[in-house]
Structure to design on (338 residues):
């Protein structure tokens, strides 16, 4: 990855400047030149292969354990709960293409009562993140909790809702941190939720999982003090994103907080371009629009008052060797008080 920055600085940007008399100002301008460069082509082909090999590798091991894993769900004790809705329509932004190339996406059941897509996501996420998520993939939950504890000292939520929870990897740290709160977590994908439930029970953490679309849930108005999400928004769509913020506004009690952690999109055009490798080559189709979306404005349109919204980049120090699509990792955090 660092080589992409090197060729950009040494040849791609100067070539663009020679032709246009200025530097590129949009990631699509970078794309037009970068995609012709053999170094980038080689790196991109390797990156695409690595995604395919990642699923090949984890699917083999999940397949070996498949009957045992599906059986575990039936035997799991009940501290929390699981409520599925087989009639829930899966949004087109999930059915149209397998996000990250995961075969069948997040939501496909290959047999009745399946947990495979959840187990595959659990193993795949750890490889995809180069181990950064930690052994239980809890990095993002812990990151947002640390931010929350600093930014909202004294705020003790009693009811928490995690949107797009998948296997509950980011949800569990919240349930452990706020032991007296009731924690709900929703996702559209049944196999993720089955796995999430069995996983949470086997780790002894009470969470109430239900299969719901974050655009419109069945919870009553003003049910929650805190509504959170971790890297979900960029896997939705323009209209869904707006509707999810409207739903957060509806679900929060007065004084409650919505708090979303999102994938960095980069600060410079080359970083914008590299983050969007995922959009063009890894079926994160909506991600490219997130580069320029004004999340604070969407929160305003959803009914949050301007002076109660904040949207900022959250810098996290990282080893140089872990460098991914940007030279500095700037997670996006958008939050708003009702
Ligand atoms: C990248 S995963 C993130 C999972 C988890 N939050 C984490 O931190 O790793 C995005 C999840 O959001 C879910 N999702 C996307 N759109 C949704 C929606 N409209 N309603 C509920 N869940 C949704 C997907 O099914 C998927 O499980």
């Amino acid at each position: 990855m660092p080589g992409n920055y090197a060729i950009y600085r040494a040849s791609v940007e100067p070539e663009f400047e020679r032709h246009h008399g200025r530097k590129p100002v949009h990631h699509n301008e970078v794309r037009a030149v970068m995609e012709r460069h053999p170094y980038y082509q080689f790196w991109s082909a390797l990156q695409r292969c690595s995604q395919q090999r990642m699923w090949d590798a984890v699917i083999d091991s999940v397949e070996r354990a498949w009957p045992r894993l599906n059986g575990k769900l039936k035997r799991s004790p009940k501290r929390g709960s699981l409520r599925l809705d087989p009639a829930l329509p899966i949004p087109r932004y999930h059915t149209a293409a397998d996000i990250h190339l995961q075969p069948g996406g997040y939501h496909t059941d290959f047999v009745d009562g399946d947990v495979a897509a959840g187990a595959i996501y659990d193993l795949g996420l750890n490889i995809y993140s180069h181990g950064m998520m930690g052994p239980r993939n809890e990095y993002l939950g812990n990151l947002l909790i640390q931010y929350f504890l600093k930014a909202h000292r004294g705020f003790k939520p009693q009811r928490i809702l995690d949107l797009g929870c998948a296997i509950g990897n980011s949800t569990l740290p919240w349930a452990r941190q706020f032991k007296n709160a009731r924690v709900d977590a929703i996702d559209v994908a049944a196999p993720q939720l089955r796995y999430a439930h069995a996983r949470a029970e086997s780790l002894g953490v009470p969470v109430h999982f239900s299969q719901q679309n974050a655009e419109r849930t069945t919870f009553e108005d003003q049910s929650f003090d805190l509504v959170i999400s971790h890297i979900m928004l960029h896997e939705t769509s323009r209209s869904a994103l707006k509707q999810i913020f409207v739903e957060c506004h509806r679900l929060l009690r007065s004084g409650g907080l919505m708090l979303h952690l999102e994938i960095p999109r980069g600060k410079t055009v080359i970083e914008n371009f590299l983050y969007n490798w995922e959009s063009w080559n890894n079926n994160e189709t909506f991600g490219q629009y997130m580069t320029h979306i004004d999340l604070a404005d969407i929160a305003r349109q959803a009914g949050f008052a301007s002076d109660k919204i904040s949207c900022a980049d959250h810098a996290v120090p990282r080893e140089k060797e872990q460098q991914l699509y940007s030279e500095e990792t700037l997670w996006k955090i958008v939050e708003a008080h009702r």
